[in-house]
Amino acid sequence: MRVPSFSAIPAASTVPVPPVTTGPLRPPGRRCGRRCTAALGRVGSGLALAGLLAAAPANAQFRSTPPALPGTGEPSAAASGQAYRQDAARHLYASYPMQVWKGRLPPLLHGVAVVEVDVDAEGQVTDVRFKRPPAAPEVAPWIQQMIRRAAPFPAPRQIGPTQYVDVWLVHKGGRFQLDTLTEGQD
């Protein structure tokens, strides 16, 4: 089999390029009738539909929250809020093992949020607030639902009702890491 060489391909300057037109899509000297207008309308609506379909999969992973796996039910042995933050992060990782990003995160993330969570003495989530919401608006409700569905958290028996803050690092594919347990970022 003979492979053509690159010298057989004409240079870009020798290939004729048709001029770019910005006018109506009809032959010169001819008016656009009903059929032409209807065809242009179908093309325009088809492009709009294609745009909607292309945009839909980008955020589909944030439309629903996966069910959380049940926790162990064991109380936390944390003696401080910082120690409880680690227990809470481990609980979230155990609740959503398929959504946890394994390894180092890529340099660009879809959403970064600073989340403050209130937990009562029994481990129930009483409030979820965003100290810094993510730039992608679809990520905030997704994070909030994941936290609420993961309840009950390990009960903070030694410190009582507590409040902890963690940073959620969310990839566009719907996987996450928490700053408390992150493996770093490239």
Polypeptide structure, described:
This protein is an alpha+beta fold. It has a domain at 81-181: 2-Layer Sandwich (Fusion Protein Consisting Of Minor Coat Protein, Glycine Rich Linker, Tola, And A His Tag, Chain: A, Domain 2), CATH 3.30.1150. The chain is built from 3 helices and 4 strands; from the N terminus they run ααββαββ. It has helices spanning 34-59, 81-95, 139-149, and strands spanning 111-119, 125-132, 162-170, 176-178. It has a 4-stranded antiparallel β-sheet. The longest helix has 26 residues, at 34-59.
Name the shape in a single word: globular
CATH fold description of the domain at 81-181: Fusion Protein Consisting Of Minor Coat Protein, Glycine Rich Linker, Tola, And A His Tag, Chain: A, Domain 2
The chain-level mean pLDDT equals 80
CATH class of the domain at 81-181 equals: Alpha Beta
CATH architecture of the domain at 81-181: 2-Layer Sandwich
Overall structural class, as computed from helix and strand content, comes to alpha+beta
Q: Give the helix proportion (percent range).
A: 25-40%
Q: What gyration radius follows from the Cα positions, in whole Å?
A: 27 Å
Strand percentage lies at: 15-25%
Biggest sheet strand order reads 2-1-3-4
User: How many strand elements?
Assistant: 4
